[in-house]
Specification:
867 residues
Length: 867
Amino acid sequence: MVVRLSDLDVADVSGMIAAAVAVIQIFIPLALPLILLGVLRDEQASATTTSAVSWSVIGRFLHSSRWPTLLYADSAAIRGVPRHILFITRMKTILAVLTAIAAVVTPLGLYETIVENDEWTENVSFHYIEDPSEFGYGTPERMDLPWSRLCGFYVPMQCPNSFSNVTTVSNETHISSHIERLDTRVPQYVIDAFQSGLKDQEDSVSSIFDIQSRSYTWSTADDRMGNTAWDQGRPYPISTFRMLKSNVLANDYLAVEGLVVDMKNGGIGFRNHSAPPRTPYGSTWSEDLLFIEPETACVDTNLTIDFMIPRYTSEETASFTYTDLVLTDRGGFANLNTTYPTYETTNTQHNPQLRERAYKGAWFNNALSMAFLNVTNIKNESDPNSRAFSYLNSHVGKQFPLMSKSGRQTPHLILSVNELRISTLFGRYLDGLDEGIEARNGSILNVTIEGEEPLYSNPFNITFEDDFSLANTLCSGKGGADAANLDNFAAECGLVYGAPSRLDNESSPIVFEPGSKWSIPMYSCIMTAKATIKRVTFKFNGTDDLSALKVTEINDKVYPNEESKPLWGVERSDSDLADVRPLWGLVSSPDQGNISLYTLRKESLYLPGYADGFVRFSPNGGLQNLPGVDFYVKGITSVFQEADSSQYLPDYTGSMNLAMNRRWQELSKSANTTAKILNLIWTDVSANGVVGTRGLHGAIVQDSSSNLEKRDMEKSGPASNTPRVRYMERRVRYRWAYAVPALIVLVLTAIIAFATLFFVLIGRASMARMRQYLNKTSQGRILTTYLYGQKGEMFASAPPTSPKLARTSTRRWVQNVGKNPVTVAEAPNDSLIINGPQAGQAQPLLQPNPMMQPQPYQPGPSDGNEK
């Protein structure tokens, strides 16, 4: 690996410098002793003469270097040395090595980073930041749009608390309306009621009336053909839809014009984006935001659709994308619990029982499929002795063909080797398999078509219009005729055909080889949406636009007690879900004047409504401008529509995107992760459909020339309180793993310091004793004591010339005998010869040497002062 200068940081350079210093510290103590040996002159072979004090200095210098250890000299010996002495002397070497390692390694842990300041800054002025992405470019400026609302499914009806005057008459066979005035406006007191709870929240929290359609237009009621024109024929706004960009594979928190988008788990938060003033290193803060998030539960049917890609292409198989199409019982038939499932339909806000609902859809789908295939029977209502599930003709692994020998299959089952499908129609994989083909001649192409018998006889006459269609209603738990109240939340059910995965696992999951076998899991899923308040953390740094705003965390808001939880209100009426989509929002109390409410104090609210399959995101938009009650239902129905039935939405099947196909393969391996697929699609579509208009950056300012409000102005008035902000700053940080050698050195140093203090306090390590042992181990003193018989401190022919010399033993010794020349030589018989002028003990130190005759010592009058 090549390391360039640009790859190095401060810590790397510091470590390199420390390594160079360590090398120098090792080299110099090794080199200087060699230089000293070079300057010492031998009078003859192995004989060197210098002063006694020089021998002490030379000994100290040589033995304090690393050469005794390298050459295993006497001072580095191990044998014969007591363990406590050996341990203490070895600690010096160990600490020297550890210190050198620490000097190199320790700086490597240093690095610079940008961190939050320890102090919060109050009352920071926020300003609008523009979105330079497709979302900002494709979102029109906000006009002072009035809200418009229409009610009634079959005929116009009077909406709750509206200015309209409509009388509706209905009986068993007919429903009609008498219209005196039809007004689409939403009264201000209604708006105020559903925003009243905002005073108990942070200024960043939005209401239902801070949610606008990202795209809108104007419409005029057609009063021709005798129709009654609402709003006296004046133009009124309606919501529309245009897809801007898909982020379904982003797997990140995104900030786009008017929204915070959670593409990790699903959900959108409403915020007209603003930020504090730019600083060199940025800033961070947290806000409470209103979030609408999908909640999906899926249950595995334990049935799979399996097939094989044709091995060869021929005239017969040229039009087939797969062969051997079968329905495989993975336990969905053989292990079906024959007890009819139920779930609680009251108190759904606290216990929606989504999994129980999805299980009921799966159970009904499997039970009807079993009857269609004659795997089991259903109860004969005309026979009191009849009971369902009296026999079972299946086992785990049994396969049921879904394709005739000629390649014919159900025309309603549109599958592909690389697609994920979502449908509201349960059991569609069997539709048409109980019908045969009659033989006929003389078609348009003059081709003879041979007749075929049905694949299955369908002995119990299971129909898709009357039987399988009930699975959806039984799963969602309601229909359009149910009451528009708090318990009936918007939900849709359907069957998810997961992305096909290879059965053999012999190659890449996105390589569709001829002859490979594939399997499609099937899940029963239910989706709903809920409103909640989340705590969102932002970081702002870089350019002064939305590209510099990052969402770092999205967490559920934590409430200290029950009373601090938000109070949700839902509009109360005596209407059906198909006729009225109730308003909802944060309210201050259950009493909102003449507006009748259902209220709930809870962390979240499952949103009311009815997913009828007709209300979905499309350019047509609908007949009203009230996206807060429409968009989440449109998102749900858009998810469950057939994958190729809308030209206005991206292709979410994965057939045109291998990355998406592989992502869906991974997520559709289990029921829980399959639910995430639906949540992500809902989030992606809904983010393109709506925008939040509440922000923290001041009051509305209008352009008088165009009467257009700038998008950087807040629709609901100025924010009185902005969140506390922490500014970022540059700091030096450390990776503690690199500090291990230094910490070891510190621990050993602390132990040594404690031991030193202990011995000093008990008097075993005084300065006087240290001087004594230094003198005892001084080589020059040993030599002169041997040669002259005394230490050399006291005897002298004249008193010391100064009191300082008298007080210092070393100076007295040097003054008396330390300057005397001493010769140290090695004899041929491995003896050490010590010689000095007028020394009485001038003889070999280790063995007698007859060739050396000692000379008696005769002190002269000036020995103590000059030698």
